[in-house]
UniProtKB/TrEMBL annotation:
The keyword Disulfide bond applies. Pfam families: Melibiase_2, Melibiase_2_C. It is found in: Lysosome. Homodimer. It catalyses: a neolactoside IV(3)-alpha-GalNAc,IV(2)-alpha-Fuc-nLc4Cer(d18:0) + H2O = a neolactoside IV(2)-alpha-Fuc-nLc4Cer(d18:0) + N-acetyl-alpha-D-galactosamine; a globoside IV3GalNAc-Gb4Cer + H2O = N-acetyl-alpha-D-galactosamine + a globoside Gb4Cer; Cleavage of non-reducing alpha-(1->3)-N-acetylgalactosamine residues from human blood group A and AB mucin glycoproteins, Forssman hapten and blood group A lacto series glycolipids; a neolactoside IV(3)-alpha-GalNAc,IV(2)-alpha-Fuc-nLc4Cer(d18:1(4E)) + H2O = a neolactoside IV(2)-alpha-Fuc-nLc4Cer(d18:1(4E)) + N-acetyl-alpha-D-galactosamine. One of its GO terms (molecular function) is alpha-galactosidase activity. Its EC number is 3.2.1.-. This is Alpha-galactosidase.
Length: 429
């Protein structure tokens, strides 16, 4: 199907497609198995780290007992490689009997008893990406009913081993099938990632009616290069992507890898700040049983999470890209507040960056209370016209939360109607 044909096909089907589940009004938060634990199914050699009910029991315990749940990290998400190699005689998906002997319903009950929610993985194709049974079109309804009966709260539907035509039918069909179960299930689609992520192949207006969140781009790997590649793609294409996000429908740049092996301390702080300014789902993929205090402190930053979960749900934008390899990102927040991220791509030494809120297109004659998101302390009052400097470490960030102190601040929702405008275009200063 061409992009145009696909758009027309979906537009005709739209009234019955719309998800209307009232879910994910802020970006989902929780834990996901894939990046850290992949498709490790050798429970004999590696019982502690294989994809099994034990791993998910233990992660649920950590979320409930180590302060994560109270901050909003509520989803425990199973990714690929959980099922048996074949469907049962009735054509139903079944969990691997050795690795999930009690079944998914028992795991969901365990997770729910701890005030958490369970997510599961499916794939719209012959096989999942890991080679397990996929969800062909004839199985969409059955699988939706199975997941609902098990007590699942989120479905990530991947797209390996399926054609563009199958995806164009299957992703909206799964939205209808999930709605029909009567169970509230957050629906995460990988559809745009398989269609290049951008218009005209992807119609984000229609996608937002079908899915609660969607993967647009490549899988994240445990490296700084991967984080930079994802960041570059999202902000280079922000004019097309940013308007698509909002309460109930989010762009998903993939998991947080903070606490693993590939990021330095500064880079970990940068991923958290950039994902927060992007209004991204915060789905950690790390070992919560052994996570370092430093990584935990980044992931549990209360002000950061408050910004990520802002009820307006406006995705931030890159507003400045300097020759000095400093970039500035702005996210409008409720009550005329905003978040600023000053990000250094330099690899030499800490850099002193000087600018003013006026240069960053803030309203004239306003005064803001500035709070450093990572340090926590309130820096003081700042007038729009005042020059200020921040010192940014290599591959690091300085992140500010700004609250207006004067009344002459234009509400951000007015700015949103105008975006993208000249004021929001990256500028070389």
């Amino acid at each position: 199907l061409s992009g145009l044909t696909l758009s027309l096909t979906l537009a005709l089907a739209l009234p019955s497609v719309a998800l209307e589940n009232g879910l994910a009004r802020t970006p989902p938060m929780g834990w996901m198995s894939w990046e850290r634990f992949r498709c490790n199914v050798d429970c004999q050699a590696d019982p502690r780290n294989c994809i099994s009910e034990q791993l998910f029991f233990e992660m649920a315990d950590r979320l409930a007992e180590d302060g994560w749940r109270e901050l909003g990290y509520e989803y425990v998400n199973i990714d690929d490689c959980w099922s048996a190699r074949q469907r049962d005689a009735a054509g139903q998906l079944v969990p691997d009997p050795k690795r999930f002997p009690r079944g998914i319903k028992a795991l969901a009950d365990y997770v729910h008893a701890r005030g958490l929610k369970l997510g599961i993985y499916g794939d719209l194709g012959i096989f999942t990406c890991g080679g397990y049974p996929g969800t062909m079109l004839e199985h969409v309804q059955q699988d939706a009913q199975t997941f609902a009966a098990w007590g699942v709260d989120m479905l990530k539907l991947d797209g390996c081993y399926s054609s563009a035509e199958e995806q164009a039918k299957g992703y909206p069909e799964m939205a209808r099938a999930l709605n029909a179960t009567g169970r509230p299930i957050v629906y995460s689609c990988s559809w745009p990632a398989y269609q290049g992520g951008l218009p005209p192949q992807v119609n984000y207006t229609i996608l937002a009616e079908i899915c609660n969140l969607w993967r647009n781009y490549d899988d994240i790997q445990d490296s700084w290069d991967s984080v930079l590649s994802i960041t570059d793609w999202f902000f280079t294409n922000q004019d097309m992507l940013q308007p698509a996000a909002g309460p109930g429908h989010w762009n998903d740049p993939d998991m947080l890898i903070i606490g693993n092996f590939g990021l330095s301390y500064e880079q970990s702080r940068s991923q958290m700040a950039l994902w927060t300014v992007m209004a991204a789902p915060l789905l950690m993929s790390t070992d919560l049983r052994t996570i370092s205090p430093a990584a935990k402190e980044i992931l549990q930053n209360r002000l950061m999470i408050q910004i990520n979960q802002d009820p307006l749900g406006i995705q931030g934008r890159r507003i400045v890209k300097e020759k000095s390899h400093i970039e500035v990102f702005l996210r409008p927040l409720s009550q005329a507040a905003s978040a600023l991220v000053f990000f250094s791509r330099r690899t030499d030494m800490p850099f002193r960056y000087t600018t003013s809120l006026a240069k960053l297109h803030f309203p004239e004659d306003a005064v803001y209370e500035v709070q450093d998101v990572y340090v926590g302390k309130i820096i003081g009052a700042l007038k729009t016209a005042d020059n200020f400097s921040v010192i940014i470490n290599p591959s690091g960030v300085v992140m500010w939360y700004l609250r207006p102190m004067a009344l002459r601040v234009q509400p951000w929702h007015v700015v949103r109607q105008q975006a993208p405008s000249k004021a929001f275009r990256p500028a070389l200063l």
